[in-house]
Amino acid sequence: MQRPLPREAFLQADTYAATRLPVDHATSLIPDAYTSPDFHALEQERLFARTWVPVCLGSDIAGPGDYTVVEVAGRSIIVCRNGSGELRAHHNVCRHRGARLCDGAGKTDRLLHCPYHGWAYDLDGNCRATPHFVPGMVASDARFDRSEMSLHAVRVAQWAFLVFVCLDPSAPGLEEALGDLPARLSGYPLEQFRVTRRREYTIAANWKLVAENFVEYYHLPLIHPALLPVSPVEAHYRWQGRGKYSGLCTWPVGSDTADGGWKGLPPAPGVQGRDAESARFAWIFPTAGISVTANHVFVLIARPEGPERTSESAFILTHPDSEAASPDAEADIDTLIGFWDTINREDIAIVERTQCGLRNPAYTGGRMCHRFEEPCHRLQNMVIDAMLGIERTPAGDDAETARRLGPPYGAT
Fold first, then answer.
1. Is 407 within the bounds of a domain?
2. For residues 205 and 375, what is the distance between their CA atoms, to the nearest angstrom?
3. C-alpha distances in angstroms, 230 versus 235, 242, 279?
4. Where are the beta strands (DSSP E) in 123-222?
């Protein structure tokens, strides 16, 4: 296939025919999907503007009046909690002359004020003040009604600790997108976990490489020598059902080594059985990864900043009861973030190296390894669906395809 492809090719099904094949025969997503400014621009409108996008953690806007500004598909969005603590989201643009209302994050007692002319809005988006511009002061034949000047609303919802927004009023709800993932993770008290560490990263690579790397364990032996003893390749299983996510599982997790591991803190209350012995990994389409273990959760939120640049926030979440039961919780959590930081930096280095390779016109795509790369194939086909305007929720694995390597999941 000739490179670079013209813009119109990205909207044609034939372009993706090789990636649409079953994973045993499929070729990876076209390289232009990771390098082309045209693909990136179309992707913003056809994917990010039409699906539920994870944007922050609930703790970022924990109480009434808290707000944070996020960007989705080039739109600036205010995500906040109203006076009753309910989630709200609004386009970050004044209804008067279009000035941006807020930057960063903060807290307000009652109103969001436009810095240009002082128009003000409550946290439900209602216009509450229009200085020197009231019905009695306009021409007699002019009609002005503040109730028609509310901020433009954006759909917003929260699952566990993640907050999502959706720019498309006609898209299916968040429940449809998540599918059976909440049920699969119901053995963990996710709503009770709290953020105890945070890191920020800048990655010179496309966001899709970050996502694919998260769900692919083919690279473990070469890239993650410290992770391999606690998460061996033969203990990995695909772990995904119906929903817009791609998942895998390590069972059982290995013991910690001198290089680190996951078992420092005691388990969270109520985590038992196979949940207590496993590490669950899910990339929630399009841009959040969660790693759930018995005693902590590691979260990544990726933010595309261009075809070859991604910013990423990483969080460690722990349970208060686990912290209370540990003789030295702070040291245990420091060990966790140090271990994950090492793993994440190793991942960043290899995806940046891959990004460099994808720029070479000689590369036009490669065959996917059916034993290890089905989760990547699943993610790539979700991207293709979005580019072609297909609304589809992927089905889950069956028993046969879920155990391509090693014994069946749960076997003794």
1. no
2. 19
3. 10, 28, 10
4. 127-129, 155-159, 162-166, 194-203
101: left (phi over 0), alpha (psi -120 to 50) or beta: alpha
CA distance 367 to 374: 12
Tokens describing residue 60:
């970022």
What is the Cα–Cα distance from 282 to 247, expressed in whole angstroms? 4
Task: List pLDDT tens digits, range 343-400.
Answer: 999 999 999 999 999 999 999 999 998 878 999 999 999 999 999 999 999 998 765 4
Instruction: For residue 398, give the nearest of 177, 239, 200, 228 by alpha carbon.
Output: 239
Q: Are residues 237 and 321 in the same domain?
A: yes
CATH (domain of 309): 3.90.380.10
Q: Which amino acid is at 27?
A: T
* CA angle, 231 then 408 then 188, to 5°: 55
Q: How far apart are CA 154 and CA 92, in angstroms?
A: 10
Taking the C-alpha atoms of residue 277 and residue 254, their distance in angstroms, rounded to an integer, is: 9
Distance of CA 355 to the CA centre of its chain: 20
Question: What are the two backbone dihedrals, phi and then psi, of residue 306, each rounded to the nearest 5 degrees?
Answer: 155, 175
Structure confidence by residue, pLDDT tens digits, 108-135: 988 999 999 999 999 999 999 999 876 5
Q: Answer yes or no: do 222 and 154 share one domain.
A: no
Distances (CA, A) of 302 to 142, 306, 356: 47, 12, 19
Structural domain containing residue 200: 7-49+179-388
Q: How far apart are CA 410 and CA 412, in angstroms?
A: 6
